[in-house]
Design goal:
207 residues; alpha/beta; Rossmann fold; 7-stranded mixed beta sheet; two-stranded antiparallel sheet; 9 strands; 34% helix; globular
Length: 207
Amino acid sequence: MVPIGVLVSGRGSNLESILDAVDGKYITKGRVSVVVSNKPSVGALEIARKHDVPTVVLDDKGLPKMDPEYDRKTMATLEAHGVTPKDGLIALAGYFRILSPQFVDHYPNRIMNVHPALLPAFPGLEAQKRALEHGVKVSGATVHFVAKEVDAGPIILQAHVPVRDDDTVETLSERILRQEHRLYPEAIRLFTEDQLKIEGRRVVLKT
């Protein structure tokens, strides 16, 4: 059973999709052992408690977006709940911090994130807004392994979302989010069942 640590900062909709997949036995070889938030009183914490998952708040108020000392505390918390570099998986679910290189090196190819665009297009913030401004006809969602560069790690799964002429940031974001909720549990399931293999920059399914 793969211990999963989920890092959150907000409402927790992707966290809920992961927990529902575990509770619904779609993910059978992984369990969420801890949810860690850098913000107190966010919705994700309440979702974790409803699913009887331990929660830890490491308040980062006043700290920079990337802080190796803060990350050391986060890693210690994860490892205290069994999420180790050897056996664990970390899922970023609306986590509004940038992981330090030390953090990424400590958990090589064991940190996942989901992004509301078809990477490598539109990395970083406001991806949906920038997609509309560029006039793209197709956007989507990407689940990827985390690398030291933001939104630059090997791509695990993607789903496309057509962009409508009357789309706003809100309507496009809503449709992309539905794909995130589908893709993220699937990527985690594949990882926990040891079905993923990295070949260079490519993630392929084992046969």
